[in-house]
Amino acid sequence: MSKWFDPRSTFGMLLIAAVLIALPFVAALGGQAWVRIVNFAILYIFLALGLNIVVGYAGLLDLGYVAFYAVGAYTYALLASPHFGLHWPFWVILPLGAALACVFGVLLGSPTLKLRGDYLAIVTLGFGEIVRIFMNNLNAPINITNGPQGITLIDPVAIGDLRFSGTSQILGISLSGPQKYYFLLLALAILVIVINQRLQNSRIGRAWQAIREDEIAAKAVGINTRNLKLLAFAMGASFGGVAGGVFSAMQGFVSPESFSLIESIMILAMVVLGGMGHIPGVILGAVLLTVLPEVLRYGVGPLQMALFGKMLIDPESLRMLIFGLALVLVMRFKPAGLWPSPERKRELSEKRTGAA
Amino acid sequence: MTVLLEAKAVAKHFGGVKALRDVSLTIRQGEIYGLIGPNGAGKTTFFNCMTGLYIPDGGGFDFAGAPLVADAPHKAAERGIARTFQNIRLFANMTALENVMVGRHVRTAAGVLGAIFQNRATRAEEAAIRQRAEDLLHYVRIEDRADDLAKNLSYGDQRRLEIARALATEPRLLCLDEPAAGMNATETEELRDLIDGIRRDGTTILLIEHDVKLVMGLCDRVAVLDYGAMIIEDVPAVVQKDQRVIEAYLGA
Question: Which chain A positions have a beta carbon within 8 Å of B125's beta carbon?
Fold first, then answer.
């Protein structure tokens, strides 16, 4: 961080707060679609920071993280939609979804305790797919999840009479549905950032990092690696569960399609690309990977028209091509991530100046 | 003198290879006990059985008057057995200070909720962990490297850091697996002083070492392993002159 701007100063805090409050209104100038994109960026920050506990801190390569997101999303969908005729309030369902995802986290964690790296990745990948396939097929003999059609007409978040869908007036300011979700998501994101931050510099966080660095040495200093790994899975999963619930409410619709393997990979990519284990890095990764594809979606078509006067390549294919290329380039030239932790950065600069 | 650790006919085999054949020995409170032997004699295997990394196929250990049920390594540390590794095993991407702070894990209690809510007890415990870790870095004389990543420390400092991390668990028995390996004469001399100091401060030490000079000069008693069996356990002066030991080292 440069000297003229310190985010920890009062001025810095106020500036960040002002930007965050103004953001949904600025984004709305480009249409509500942009507010939704910002919302998804924050939702992915939430998910990525949840996964950061498992992958970044404890070093457990989890490719099935989306399963917990799905558990949270379906918990909300089933308990607040006409599907079962249940309409529970969100402040009951979100914690319930988190708890259920937590149970699933332990379920995934317990058989994989002795696995590491590639092997763990394969088992978690299988787990993620199993959950998705269950969602896809639990419509017979008893219709629980409504299969591939998914669940529609899910209740929006509501606080008292204030429903988060549609526009409403608060303190004389007109807020659209997505703008209201923005503030809910922002509050949740700040919460998860604080939790991540505090865990990182705690006894538990250090024990996770020790397991990541050297499991045998961690055992030798008395760390119960089994319990701590399960704890990491459970905590990461509960964040996924909460994110899923908010996703359900915000979209009003869930189907198994939203929880495919590519989602897990994207969330993992956010963590790795941003800077594993480093909170600002993970946030940056989540924002970039959510916003960049959208910018490209709106950008590559007009750009081609301006440059060549005609469409040479289908914008949709070009978009993903550029996106993929960007990922490869970042990993080639910034292997520790775009914004790695200060320790890693200092180490790189030490190498550059030579061992003085 | 009271007995701190007693190994009773400990046996371990890997397939057909008998790595340990009924090894029995006693380590007394407050002594430096040396365990030596040629390569592959079973020294590290013995270590691993004691610290719970391996489960012995026969026999067992008594530690501080009660059986040591070493079915999980973290339990050995809880009981008060700490170790270092032959090939240094530090938490490479954590700072030296953090490495030692991890060592306090087993003697502290803060959980997830404490970490999240930062209540007074957690903050006090965290401050105590940091203070103790700083003191230990000072004790092994690498306090000026506290904020460096463990992997950027010099070889000798890494050895010292590993000892500091082991001491952070408040061991009654500190097991050092070839601490002088790869050290030059000066470093070995400094290490000798450090080990002697740790013993004087009240910690019993089990030392596996190749450097016969170091072992003979430092240890109160020495056991010699050869092909997984113990051939002698006695004071250095006797062990040094024993015909079987000379044969084991030089070949018959």
Answer: 203
Work out the average pLDDT over A201-226: 93
Q: What is the pLDDT of residue A234?
A: 94
Stated as kind and residue range, the H or E segment containing A163 is: strand A162-163
Considering just the CA atoms, what is the radius of gyration of chain B in Å?
Answer: 19
Please write the tens of the pLDDT for every residue from A329-347: 888 888 888 888 776 555 5
Q: In a mutagenesis test of the B interface, which of A197, A212, A213, A235 is the best target, namely the one with the most B β-carbons within 10 Å?
A: A213
Q: How many CB pairs under 8 A join A and B?
A: 111
Q: At CB < 8 Å, which residues of chain A contact B?
A: 194-195, 198-199, 201-207, 209-210, 213-214, 216-225, 231, 235, 343-344, 347, 350
Q: How confident is the model at residue A355 (pLDDT cuts 50, 70, 90)?
A: very low
The encoded tokens of residue A176 equal 């659209």
CA distance B99 to B103: 7
pLDDT tens digit string along B125-152? 999 999 999 999 999 999 999 999 999 9
* Integer CA distances (angstroms), A165 to A95, A157, A250, A251, B168, in order: 21, 8, 8, 10, 55
Mutation to test the A interface, candidates B50, B102, B130, B161, most A Cβ within 10 Å:
B102
Domain end residue (candidates: B107, B134, B168):
B168
The answer to the question of residue B86 being in a domain is: no
**Cβ–Cβ of A343/B105 closer than 8 Å?**
no
Separation in Å, CA of A44 to nearest CA in chain B: 22
Residue B145 lies in a domain: yes
CB contact under 8 A, B112 and A214: no
| From B51, B104, B109, residue closest to A220, measured CB to CB | B51
Domain that holds residue B30: 1-80+171-252
Residues B36 and B135 in one domain: no
| Beta strands in A88-145, from DSSP E residues, in sequence order | none
User: What average pLDDT score do residues B74-99 get?
Assistant: 92
Distance of CA A203 to the CA centre of its chain: 25
pLDDT winner (highest mean) among A31-35, A133-137, A146-150: A133-137
